[in-house]
UniProtKB/TrEMBL annotation:
GO CC aspect terms: cytosol
Matching InterPro entries: IS30-like_HTH, Transposase-Integrase
Organism of origin: Corynebacterium hiratae
Identification of the protein by name: IS30 family transposase
Domain Transposase IS30-like HTH: 6-28
Biological-process GO terms, alphabetical: transposition
Coiled-coil features, chain-numbered ranges: none
GO molecular function: transposase activity
Taxonomic classification: Bacteria, Bacillati, Actinomycetota, Actinomycetes, Mycobacteriales
Length: 140
């Protein structure tokens, strides 16, 4: 592929939609001004990968990690065999005036099954002293 190819030409060569290519170039490319004053967009796949990896870093603590109170309530509810959806809905109702005590069901599932190999799962197992409480998900 030539650096002068259009987004449509590149997209056709790599079998992707032109908007995907244009978005990638816009997000991870940079502009240079030639000697004659015309702007050109430049793109380097390695630099784009490095930039993307930097954006993926999550320095922000997750809500369950930054609030021991919320984490305790969620663990108690899970110990009662409540689903993450039910917990999320109950928290929204019970703590309607306190945004810090709300969490989405996706965040609870993430803490159970994905994040740190299920950091919340280990805590729940400690509370319940059994692994049978957890809903088996996927191939685990």
């Amino acid at each position: 592929m030539s650096c002068r190819d259009s987004a449509r030409a590149i997209a056709q060569k790599i079998n992707r939609h032109h908007s995907v290519v244009a978005r990638e170039i816009t997000r991870n490319g940079w502009k240079i001004v030639d000697e004659d004053g015309t702007e050109q967009l430049r793109y380097n796949a390695h630099n784009a990968a490095v930039s993307t990896a930097g954006r993926m870093v999550r320095p922000k603590l997750r809500k369950l990690d930054e609030s021991p109170t919320l984490r305790g309530v969620v663990v108690d509810c899970l110990a009662r065999r409540w689903s993450p959806g039910r917990i999320s809905a109950w928290l929204e109702h019970a703590f309607s005036d306190d945004e810090s005590m709300r969490i989405s069901h996706e965040a609870i599932y993430s803490a159970l099954y994905i994040q740190g190999k299920g950091s919340l799962r280990a805590e729940l197992e400690e509370v319940m002293k059994t692994k049978d409480v957890l809903i088996r998900g996927g191939s685990t």
